[in-house]
Write a structure and sequence with these properties.
By secondary structure, the chain is mainly α. It contains eleven helices and no strands. It is 73% helix and 0% strand.
Length: 198
């Protein structure tokens, strides 16, 4: 998956990111692993955790339940399904707006380079995880949930962006499926979400 991403769009996308351009100009080739993101800032961690929780709530039907390893009989999954069956288009638009608001809350807490950095592993590793978990689900294997901010004791690291990116991409597949089919468009949407243009 990573080779495909590299061949399709990675170099041009990096050239559009201030954080990548600055790091590479300084010959910091490890920026993807070592960027000083404010992981220790409790406000940032809580805002990102809230975003992921909102994504779980907004995900539809069996896909949302599968991500959590639950069955459709779980009350929350039934409620989500009933809500989305009432007026699917309206529910999707409302969910998209809600997710965008939570994403804006994260964006407002970090500087531009930190937000760009966050989007990079959400897109790169999150997309790979999204594909991996789709295959795992199809084969009946346990999903890869490493980095998931499932509870207050979960560590907030760059791996959290892999898990967050995967569920964000899963959500976008449901509400903006055309976005997920084009890696450049997906990247642009992840950068845009939470801005005034979203």
């Amino acid at each position: 998956m990573h080779c495909y991403q590299f061949e399709k769009c990675e170099i041009e996308l990096k050239q559009s990111l201030g954080v990548a351009v600055e790091a590479l100009a300084a010959k910091d080739y490890m920026w993807e692993l070592n960027y000083p993101f404010p992981y220790q800032d409790r406000r940032v961690r809580d805002a990102y955790s809230d975003l992921v929780g909102t994504l779980r709530s907004a995900s539809k039907g069996a896909d949302a339940c599968a991500h959590r390893g639950e069955t459709r009989a779980v009350a929350g999954c039934v409620e989500d399904e009933q809500r989305s069956n009432a007026d699917p288009a309206a529910a999707q638009n409302a969910d998209y707006q809600t997710v965008s608001e939570y994403r804006k809350a994260v964006r407002d807490l970090v500087d531009t380079h930190s937000f760009e950095y966050m989007v990079w592993p959400e897109r790169k590793e999150g997309f790979a995880r999204f594909i991996d978990n789709g295959i795992r689900a199809r084969l009946g294997l346990p999903l890869n949930l490493a980095g998931d901010l499932a509870d207050d004791s979960s560590l907030f690291t760059r791996v959290s962006f892999y898990a967050g990116g995967a569920i964000l991409i899963e959500f976008l597949e449901g509400v903006r499926p055309e976005t997920v089919k084009d890696l450049t468009r997906l990247f642009d949407k992840l950068i845009e979400m939470g801005s005034s243009r979203a």
